[in-house]
Fold:
Amino acid sequence: MTYNKAQHDSETLAEGQQVFTACALIWREENGVKQVFLARRADTKKFLPGVWELPGGHIDYGEDMREGLAREVLEEFGMDINIGEVLDVFTYINEVKKSHSIEVIYMAQFTDPLENIQANPEDHSTYGWFSEAELPQTFVSPKDERDPEIIAIRKGFARLKAEA
Structure:
């Protein structure tokens, strides 16, 4: 498949359309503490610049959700992932694209060595691993405790605790 960045861009106008996105709650356990991988959107982005988010992105027309998510993580971080079960699904309006997004979040883990992570600077300025207690430091307006992605991340931590 040929990759067309404009096709996936969160800023390309899609007025009145529904757009599907897939994200990964990538987790690890470090010194007995469960952590999730979050990336900070590049400050050059028009949609949510500088906001911490789960990795992922737009799914092409006809593309399998899991394959699209794996593609996005590979493009954004140069990493392969093992995708597990669906964690959550929610919708939002992207005021920049003027579209209605349906976002599916999957549980996942990197399969490549963590030292191989390389953020694509067009997409993200940095990344990090965060415990549940560290989540509030990642909240940047307009995200707060009521944001659907933050709620999903908390749900992910609850699932990881239940599986322990």
Q: What stands out?
A: The chain is about 20% helix and 35% strand. The domain at 13-163 is CATH 3.90.79.10 (Nucleoside Triphosphate Pyrophosphohydrolase). Residues 1-8 have pLDDT under 50 and may be disordered.
